[in-house]
Amino acid sequence: MSAKPMTVSYNCREQLCVESAPGPGAIVIFGASGDLTKRKLLPAIYALFERNLLPEKFAVIGVARTEMSNEDFQEEVREAMLVNGDTVTEEFLHRFSYVAGQYTEADTFARLQTELERVSEVHGTEGNALFYLAMPPTMFEPIVKGLAEQGLLEEEEAWARVIIEKPFGHDLESAVALDKSLKRYIKESQTYRIDHYLGKETVQNILMLRFANSIFEPLWNHTYIEKVEITVAEELGVEKRAGYYDKAGALRDMFQNHMVQMLSLIAMEPPAVFEADAYRDEIAKLISSIRPLEGQDLGNISVRGQYVESVDSDRPAAGYRKEEGVDPRSQTETYVALKLFIDNWRWRGVPFYMRTGKRLPKKSSEIAITFKPIPHSIFKPIRPKDFNQNVLLLRMQPHEGMGLSIEVKAPGSKLCVNTLDMDFSYSDFMQGEDIPDAYERLILDALLGDQTLFVRNDTVEASWQLFMPLIRAWDANLENVPLCFYPAFSEGPKETNEILEGGSLQWRKI
Ligand SMILES: NC(=O)C1=CN([C@@H]2O[C@H](COP(=O)(O)OP(=O)(O)OC[C@H]3O[C@@H](n4cnc5c(N)ncnc54)[C@H](OP(=O)(O)O)[C@@H]3O)[C@@H](O)[C@H]2O)C=CC1
Ligand SMILES: O=C1O[C@H](COP(=O)(O)O)[C@@H](O)[C@H](O)[C@H]1O
C-alpha cells in the first residue's frame, strides 16, 4: 500500500533561513577548461548570482594551460549555461576573465596577480580570493606553491582560501605527504577540502533529522536498529574520465570520501554545537571507531567488481575494458561492496552494508535503516507470518526525500495487515523551486569562510588508514579478493550477496 503524497507544510520564515551574500571577493578557478568547471562550477556560480548570493562585488578568473582570450572564456561560460537552458546576461559575463599558463612557471602566477589587482580595482573585490583547484590531484601542490611564492596566499589585508578537490592523495602515504607539503604554504584555516556529497541538501538533512527531532535518536542504536544499507549507484560508465578513473577506481573515487562521509553522518554522536571543529571532531571520532579491516577475512566482507558488456539488447553498453582510454587488461574496480562495523557502545554488532558502482541499473543513492522485528506478536493466531520490519529510507538522489514503512491494519472487518509506505519528496517541500546543487552551497560557504562542511585532514587520513589493508590485498591480487565481473546495467556482481551473511539476506533492489 502506498500512501498519497504527504501534505507538506513548510514554514521557514525564521531569521536563520535568510541566506545572505558574502562580502567582496574573486573566485579563481584552476582547471577552467575542464569537465568539473563546465558541468558543475559555472552553473553553481550562476545559480548563486541568480539567487543574489554572490558578493555584489565579485569576479571570476579562469586559469588553465589552454590558450583562450577573456572573450573566448566568456563564450565558454555562456555555452555551459545554455546546456542547462540558462541565458546569461552581459552583466554576469563581464565579470569573467581568463589567464592562460603553465603551473610550473612563475610568470603564470605573476599574471594572475596582475589580473587579481585589476578585478580588485574594476569590480571592487578588495583583494579577497577563493582559489578553486578543479585540477587533477598531481597539480594541487605545484599550484599552491606557485600561489604562495607569488604572495597570493598571504592574509594581511585580505583573505585567501583554497578549495581542494578530491581525491586527496592516492593512499595513506601520499595523503600524508600531500598534506605535509601543502602545510608549508597554507594554514588549515585556509584549506577547504571539498566532498560535494556534504553539500547535498539530503545529506545535510541527515543531521537535521537526527538531531532536531526527538523521535528518532532514542531508537538510533543497536537495540533497535538491525542493519544500515548505504547505496550509491550510478548508471553512467567511466565517460571521458578514464585517464583519472583507471588509476583511481571506485574505492578511491567514491568510497574513501563520499561513502565514508555519509556513514559518518548516520553514525556519529551529536556534537555539542554545530560548529566546524565540534562537528568535525565527531566525524573524526566515528571514522576511527570503524572496525579495522586489518585482521578480518576480507573475502567475507568485501567485493570488488568491474562491468563487462551489457547483456540487455535494449540497453547496449561496452564493457569497462573497452572504454576509451582504459587499459584493455585493467584490474580497476568500478564497483565496491563492503560490510563494516562500528566498534562503539551505540553500534555494537550492527552491520553497515555499503555499495557503490558505475553502470548499475539506474542512478540512485539511498540509505535504508532497517529496524529490528517486534519482540512478540500479539496477532500470532490470526497472522502467523512475521510482520515486515520498519524501514526508514533516506533518498539522496534522484527524487530526494524520505520514506518510512510501517505495518497498518488494512481497512475492513478482518484484522488484515498491510505495509504502508509513507513517502515524502523534497520537491513537494520546495514548492516548485529547484533544490540547490551541492556545489552552490559549498562555494557559498567557502566565500563566507565557513569550513563546517569541508573535510578536515585527520578524517581524510583516518579514512585512508581504514582502507589500506584492502588496497594492499587488491594490489597483491590475493585469492580471497578476486575481481568479479558484472554485466553493465545489472545489479552488480552476484558475489555481493555473499557478504550479506553468506547470502541469507538480500540487498535492496537498485
Ligand atoms: N568531473 C567530475 O564530475 C568530478 C571531478 N572531481 C574532481 O575535480 C577535479 C577536476 O576534475 P575534471 O574537471 O573532471 O578534470 P579534467 O580532466 O577535465 O581536468 C581539468 C583541467 O585540468 C587541466 N589538466 C589536465 N591534466 C593536466 C595535467 N597533467 N597538468 C596540468 N593541467 C592538467 C586541463 O586544462 P588545460 O589542459 O587547459 O590546462 C583540464 O581542463 C579532479 O580532482 C576530480 O577528481 C570531483 C567530483 C566530480
Ligand atoms: O565524486 C564523484 O562523484 C560523481 C557522482 O556524483 P553525483 O553527485 O552525481 O552522485 C561520480 O560520478 C564521480 O566518478 C566521482 O568522481
UniProtKB/TrEMBL annotation:
SUPFAM superfamilies: Glyceraldehyde-3-phosphate dehydrogenase-like, C-terminal domain, NAD(P)-binding Rossmann-fold domains
Residue ranges constituting the Glucose-6-phosphate dehydrogenase NAD-binding domain according to the UniProt record: 28-205
Pathway recorded for this protein: Carbohydrate degradation; pentose phosphate pathway; D-ribulose 5-phosphate from D-glucose 6-phosphate (oxidative stage): step 1/3
Function (record text): Catalyzes the oxidation of glucose 6-phosphate to 6-phosphogluconolactone.
Pfam families assigned: G6PD_C (PF02781), G6PD_N (PF00479)
Residues given in the record as substrate binding sites: H196, K200, E234, D253, K358, K363
Domain of life: Bacteria
A single MF term (Gene Ontology): glucose-6-phosphate dehydrogenase activity
EC number: 1.1.1.49
Name of the protein this chain belongs to: Glucose-6-phosphate 1-dehydrogenase
Residues annotated as the enzyme's active site: H258 (proton acceptor)
Keyword Aminoacyl-tRNA synthetase found: no
Species: Veillonella criceti
Signal peptide stretch: none
